[in-house]
Amino acid sequence: MNKQDFQKSPQLNQPQKNILQVIHDFSAKNMPYYQQDKQFIAVQKGQEVNLLYTATDSVTQQGPTLTAISKYKNWLYVQHKTPEQDSQGWIPSTYVKYLSESENDLFSVELQDLMQFENRILPKFLEESFQLVDSFGKIDGIFRKSASTEEKNQLFSELNSTHSLSQSIIHYYASKQLQLPKLSKDSPLSDILQLADEIQTQTLHVVANLVKQYFNLLPTKLIQQHALSLLLQNQKLPIVERLPKYARILEKNLDFEEFVILRFLLQFLFKMSQFSAKTQMEAEQIGQLFSPNVMDSDVQEIFTFLVVSQPEIEKIYSKWPLPKCSIPTTQVKWKQQFTKVFQGGEGVVLKDFICQDPQMLFARQGNKIQVMNVHKRWVLGKIDDRIGWIPFTCIQINQ
């Protein structure tokens, strides 16, 4: 993007969902530096705003101007309407979240919102589901066979409120007067896993179906269209060339949240494929079943190849000295990746942050950044000889 691009106004796209909830107070005074700018809106935590426009780095002469432009939607143009006044202005996307039917729903919410709400790098539902299916789900037709609609709907409803698979299963069995022995409503999954005979086969098929449904209902597909198009372009390459190419495409074109979850999912699916003698489900079949849930494409061979090649892809990532590729093998708190921000240090930019304001820091994904200071949810960083402010959700500090 050249200098002339910064002098134009952003293209404004009307989004499908338009009700947001403010999760942090914001006004011009909350910026790392204060400036009188009517383009910014002043809102408080808990207030609801209407999303009017999103900004992309495709530019046009129409619509309100924006100080910072980014294809990763760093900024949103919103409206806050009260009986006293009707205000509109820009706000960083990290200060709001989409308002769903229940603000703490598990299904149909963005991965980053869920991770931050639960403070986990792998959502609790996915971790528990992977453990349950891995322990007891090596049964014929897992992921393929349909599940009880009644049980699936009830577990779906329970999970939206509890986010806990173990609690949801216990609640369901209790409603059917099928009490699991020696367990209370707050029993952890580890206790349930000891009662394999008490966990009905049908419940395992329900959980496997809910995992697919979870990914299918994500507002943003795990593998988005721009990454998918690049994968398709390289589909005909020999395997020895395709593997590193696919690994690089995923690392470069997936946001941190999607990249992390995709690797956990591939690891789980490949492991399950090793028990095909019991499940009658080869890696290719599992990949075909999950493909439409994780990306919008009729070409199932892409995701199938990722499942089959999971060990080789992980070997490639293990050789790359990138924080984004150093995913822990055990569960850690999601916010842990931000703790070192407040101590200074070096890091890497996770998302492009494009701006024209001289006090903000223009950054590209993959740039190395020196953290110098922190103000609320903003980081003062240095890239080469340039110093400026950038949202801390756009960077990751080296461990």
UniProtKB/TrEMBL annotation:
GO annotations of cellular component type: cytoplasm
PROSITE patterns cross-referenced by the UniProt entry: RHOGAP, SH3
Top-level division of the source organism's lineage: Eukaryota
SMART domains: RhoGAP, SH3
Keywords, alphabetical: SH3 domain
Rho-GAP domain ranges (all copies): 109-320
Domain SH3 intervals: 15-101
Protein name as catalogued: Rho GAP domain-containing protein
